[in-house]
Amino acid sequence: MSKPPFLSLSNIQGFWLLAITTCFTIMIIKALRFNLIEKYSNKQKAQLPPGPRQWPLVGNLPEMLANKPAHKWIHNLMKEMNTQIACIRLGNTYVIPVTCPTIATLFLREQDATFASRSLTMCTDLVSSGYSTTILVPFGDQWKKMKKILTNDLLSPHKHLWLHDKRSEEADNLVFYVYNKSKDVNAAGGGLVNIRSVARHYCGNVIRKIVFNTRYFGKGRTDGGPGFEEVEHLDSIFVLLKYVYAFSISDYIPCLSGLDLDGHQKKVKEALRIIKKYHDPIIQDRVKQQNDARKVDEEDWLDILISLKDTTNNSSLTSEEINAQIIELMIATVDNPSNAFEWALAEMINQPKLLQQATEELDNVVGKERLVQESDIPKLNYVKACAREAFRLHPMAPFNPPHVSMRDATVGNYFIPKGSHVILSRQELGRNKNVWNKPYKFKPKRHLKGDGSNVVLTEPNLKFISFSTGRRGCPGVMLGTTMTVMLFARLLHSFT
Length: 496
Description:
single chain, 496 residues, mainly alpha, CATH 1.10.630.10, 4-stranded mixed beta sheet, two-stranded antiparallel sheet, 4% strand, transmembrane helix
């Protein structure tokens, strides 16, 4: 029996020949466009930021692929060039890394509206279910809609107060679990506590309690620790974090996206499958409860998202939007506090006097007869200074999410073409020797104010990045601050 025509070898070969020809045609057109841009910028007073020599068509992709991880290559390249802003062409895209706070503020203050969009990548498309969320979504009506919901309905001061008891439950469970873990000398590890695991699962517990009103997807554990389901779920969240902006080759040569040359797509899809395995049944059941009028009182973020109505009294959000937004919120919540505490504790153990100062402050403010509460946070300036210093010296990621230019712009006498990806270096902003004295020294007191006034975790002048700022800034600063300080304070106060 002859093969059907659509499976014939000649047709398959013809398809790939057409695909490759189309791909290279597009690349040639793009290369001509970039050549025109560079010639145009050379005629203007403002020129492109300094950058390495480029290959035809592919730009600096060969160097990036030969020098992984990409963030180290970019930082080393900028140091070799002795520049705090650069222009690196990756395939069809100008990437503009910035390591200077002064230049960073030009982008996110003076011209914030111009650089308020996001890049279109394989991973962000998958995670956001076709750009239906907030953080990962390009500037437009969908972003405005979802940002308004986050700001007004989920992360307002009123809702933060409303969810206080849920956060307190998880802070109590944190102490309970670490105590049980440290006393269980017969367990694997003989009573040792893995700080990374504890900190990450505390953050995972808080966001699960806020979103789903539960700590566990399964039966849980009597010692307060995570079960298999929670470990699998949180590990998958961290897989998404790893690949969400991972300099994938297909993000810069889109016609290669179907080939998944670096394997990112497969890993992201598997992580999403695992996450949705736990989320979907809860969301579907909750929607059914509300439709059947069996759910009256709102208990968590999921209830709020489902109950939102538009002007015609129809649901404001689809189930796909709800699920995607929940995943994005979890990505945004779990890493920053846990990473800061893990690094801060390591630094403080190496400098015992710092650890002593933190515990003395906690004893003075809280005493030894009760646990730290959220109401104590304004008085814990040294603990907050330790958190700020961890954000500065040991950021959770090398770069912030890209800020994409929506039009041609001139920034600091440099020409920035429309569509450029501006990436602020969390790593180098906080270690800039022109800003920080002894930048590689962990020194919390540099963040204390002479008048003893309140220390906050945000840094509006972009001397480092704790929470994103500007039009695309983090709407959850209050929640992030609370989680971070409570994680620091509960563990430093309760254990030696």
